[in-house]
């Protein structure tokens, strides 16, 4: 009968820890690249951190949707992330790190997205 390996030496746990450390370094690297963004890209980056679509970004910043899409593509390239979701996560973390509790989502989750979370009406 085989005995269970201690958790500290389990190959699966060691691999998971290594993967977590690599991910941690990837996020740190992306955060260190934020200063590479132009002022306009930072504007887009901040709205992306709130989960905004290209259309919402365009409306809020008074640019075309095509321009918003181009800015998002530049942000992904400069941060070396694979998706707008990853860029949004980096943006959210950046806002928390640079502004602390001043980030609306950190203090009031209903202010995180333009659609806002709705409370059910009485009687439902």
From TrEMBL:
Record's keyword terms, sorted: DNA-binding, Transcription, Transcription regulation
Source species of the chain: Streptomyces aidingensis
One of the GO BP terms on file: regulation of DNA-templated transcription
UniProt-recorded name of the protein: Regulatory protein, luxR family
Coiled coil: none
InterPro entries xref list: Sig_transdc_resp-reg_C-effctor, Tscrpt_reg_LuxR_C, WH-like_DNA-bd_sf
GO molecular function, one term: DNA binding
UniProt entry tagged with the keyword Metal-binding: no
Signal peptide: none
A Pfam family it matches: GerE
Stored SUPFAM superfamilies: C-terminal effector domain of the bipartite response regulators (SSF46894)
Gene3D superfamilies linked to this entry: Winged helix-like DNA-binding domain superfamily/Winged helix DNA-binding domain
Domain of life (superkingdom): Bacteria
HTH luxR-type domain segment(s): 30-95
Keyword Nucleotide-binding belongs to the record: no
